[in-house]
Fold:
Amino acid sequence: MYSEDQLNEIFQRQKPSERINIGYGRVSAKHQKEDLERQIALLELYLAKQGKPFKIISDTGSGINYNKSGLKELIKLIGTNQIETIYILHKDRLIRFGYELIEEFCKIHNTRLEIINKDEEQTQEEELVEDY
Structure:
């Protein structure tokens, strides 16, 4: 019989108390630096109010580009069960297409995804124009 600690070690799972919260922000281009700074400030404020340890991960790059260092780091942390909750301001800030795949991956690894500004979602046409 294995203890919970042994199983966590075997499957590289973090204990719930050791899992972190992530705030993720992204903009499409470098000239949107101020928007990224605004996203980060809002995420920091929101997460600080939660009273839990957190880390901010951010990217500059198109939402249809999956080769971003922050996104790769996020996926690695999800896959190794290190994240309790990922906070994003808008659904499209995480990824433009394939959001449902990331969402399912999070469910498999018992990671919550929380969209803070659900009321301000853009249409798909607006999102695509922003990425080009």
